[in-house]
Structures are given as structure tokens and as C-alpha cells.
Amino acid sequence: MKEKILIVDDQVKVYKSLARNFQHLGYHTTHATTGQEAVERFTEEAAHVVLLDIMLGKEHGIDVLKQFLSFAPTTPVIMITGYGSIDTAVQSIKLGAFDYVTKPLDFDKLGKIVENAIKMSHLSEENRQLKDQLLDLSPPIITQNTKMIELCQKAKKLATTTLPILITGENGTGKEVIADLIHLNSPRGSRKMLKINCAAFPETLLDNELFGHERGAYTGADSTFKGVFERADGRTLFLDEIGDMPLTIQAKILRTLQNHEIRRIGGDHTITVDVRFIAATNKDLKTLIKENAFRKDLFYRLNTAKLHVHPLHERKEDIPLLVEYFLLEYSKVNATNVKGISEGVLDTFLEYDWPGNVRELKNIVNYAATISSKEYIDLDDLPHDFLDIPQQYTPGTILEEVEKNMIIKMLQKANYNKKKTAEYLNISRNTLYRKLNRYGISVSKS
């Protein structure tokens, strides 16, 4: 399809000359002599680029530009100006015009500007489509709780800034989902956010993973390695469980936030990085500061923009919505006809304190949907020890018991075929092997 150029000029000779030259290059052109006519013409047949004369009869091109940008802000507008209107042309750039050219027109120069404008327009559209796809793929925020709705609104406002953000909340509340929401609504949302769990690495490995190393920095460092801060240049970086980070690395993180610089292990020069920083923790950082386990200066640096995700027991009105969503998602990848839960199960869910939060609810629902032979989950489909779980049990213990029971059920369903079991659980075979070993589950058939 030919790209379309809308030429807005009250001088017919100028239009015809421009139209003839652009048509020769393979463009389709259309013409308008007033701002109102230009907007009407655009709505009838959208253009890829607009050429707008600053002196448009009795109208001022700046006023027409404002009108046009309010109507079609993503369409590049190139201003045409005389020598005496350069200041006005510069003003138009500040308002949002793509570029300007001066009379007498150098068509070769104008042609290149139009070509660049179209390329930029296509790139912006591709980025917008990619961002829409990422938003479609990202986990939705399922809530009707007033505090959670306010939290999401605040997160979207913070997304437009460059402030570092700290997300707090218990395990399983959805802190990473909030981080995804922030990233995808930010100017960096079209590029993948990098994530790392600080609690998953010992100190030396975490230092290396964050900041990288130079070749020969230590035994086995046979090549240069770029750390996650360097790989996240121009992107968003999410550091989960930052409360588990050693003090030595906290100091390096603080320096990076302040100076936007990192230094690889074994390196003798700094590297500038442009990283949007999001951190999360399930710990009380103020308590850690008193225990000399967290730096006060890093806390105040992060505490500028803080979001707290409330536990599930404080927003139980979300439970029916979450159950419905989890069942729908589970049915997409598993052969199940379960469409809801019984009143008894709902009452049980509403009375339970959910120490494992949303993650625990999801595991319970998935487990029950797997073994249920009906169109709804009943009390006898829940894990046999779910109703008898003492409240002093830790969330991790509860989730592990649910996961162990689900694995056993899937093994039985797959006649102890580990490949099929992994498929039923939607995990890799290696992950299944690790979990079998972790829970001490022996498999007599393969």
C-alpha cells in the first residue's frame, strides 16, 4: 500500500508541485487549504505524514498544528516556513511537530525528512502493537477491593516516572504482577523487563549476576560476562526479595541508583547504565535497619515511591473472582470440565486466613480442579489436610503440602509416566525430577 501524504497549503501551485514530485516517488497525496478541511480530509482518508504551511491564509499554522495533534497525536507533521518564521517553526517543534523545512523548498531534503517520518511512524506503531501484545500476555489484576484498585491506579501513575519503586507485601500476594503492571505502562514497556530473585543466589554469585565480570577476574572467568544491570540498559530491572541482599551488594546497588554507573568484577573502569529500578520484599525493612541488616540510605532511596500489596485475608471479596479466573486459566491447558465451586467450598475459602495468599489459593484451586469429577469443586475435592491445617503452619509448608499432593495425583492419573505427569502439571521433566526428589516421592513406573 502506498504511503499517503496530506499537504495543507492554500497555494495551489505549491501543492501541485509537491504532489507531482511525491507521486513520482510512489506516494499518494491529498490536499487541503484550511485547518478544518485538513482534519476532515484526514478522518476520511488517514494520512501517514502531514505537510503543513505555517502561513495558511488567515489561519496561523501553529493553531492548526495544535488542532491536528489533539486529533491525531501520533501522525508526524512537518512544518513549511519562510525565513522570517524560523522562531515560529522552532516553537512548532516544541509543541510536537516532527520537523520543519524552509522556503524555497529543497525537495531532496524534504523527501528524506518525509521518509524518516514514515519510518518513525511505522516504528512507533510496531512498538504500540508489541506493547498491546505484552499487556495481553501479562497477568491481569483480578480485584474489586478498593485498596487494590487504588494501588493499581497509583502504580500506573508511577509507571510514567523514572523513580525507583519499592513493592512490599507478604509472599504470594502478587508483588511481581504489580511490577509487570508498572513496567508495561511505562515508556520502556515495549522491551522485556529483566527479573532476578536476590534470595536465590549466594553473595558471590549475586554480585556476579548483577554486575558481571571481566575476563580473568577470577579462576574460571574465561570470558567477559555482562551482569543484569548492564543487560538491562534502556529497560526495567525487577529485583525480588531485596531484603535478602547482603550489605556489601546493597552498597553497590545504592551507588548504581545514585550515579547510574556499574563496575564489573575485576574491572578498572565504570560503565554508564540507564535502568528503571523496581524492587520488592516480603520483609519489614525498618526492622532490618535496626538489626543492621539493611542500609538506611538505600531504604530512603527506595522508599520515595512505595507500594504495599495487601494480603488476601484483607480482601476476601476478591476470592470468588480469583477462583473463577484460575479455573478458566487452568481449563485452557488441562482437560477439565470444572466451572465453579460449591457453596460449601466458597464458605470455607471465605473463612480461611490464607497465609499463603493468592498463590496458595491458586494451588488449591488447581489441585481440586484436577481431581474433581464434577462440574464444580466440592469439599471432598480439596486437599485432605486443608481443613485441618493448624494456623501456626507457615505458608511455605502449606504450599509444599498442596504441591506434593497434586504431584502424587498427577502421577496416578498418568499411570506413573513422568513425561505425561510433567505435561499435566505444565512443568518440565527436570523440574518434576527435582520436586520428586525434594518431596521424597518414589516412582515405581517410568
Commentary on this structure:
- By secondary structure, the chain is an alpha/beta fold.
- It folds into 3 domains: 4-133, Response regulator (Rossmann fold, 3-Layer(aba) Sandwich); 144-310, 3-Layer(aba) Sandwich (Rossmann fold), CATH 3.40.50.300; 331-439, no CATH class.
- Helices cover 48% and strands 14% of the residues.
- It has 18 helices and 18 strands.
- It has helices at residues 12-24, 35-44, 61-71, 86-95, 107-137, 146-159, 175-184, 203-211, 228-231, 247-259, 285-290, 296-302, 319-333, 343-351, 357-371, 395-413, 418-425, 429-439, and strands at residues 4-8, 28-32, 49-53, 55-56, 59-60, 77-81, 99-102, 165-168, 194-197, 212-213, 225-226, 236-240, 261-262, 271-272, 276-281, 306-308, 340-341, 376-377.
- Strands 2-1-3-6-7 form a 5-stranded parallel beta sheet, with helices on both faces. It has a 5-stranded parallel beta sheet with strand order 9-12-15-8-16.
- Strand 4 and strand 5 form a beta hairpin.
- Helix 13 (319-333) packs across helix 15 (357-371).
- The radius of gyration is 29 Å and the shape is globular.
- It starts with a strand and ends in a 7-residue tail after the last helix.
- Mean pLDDT is 85; it is low at 389-395.
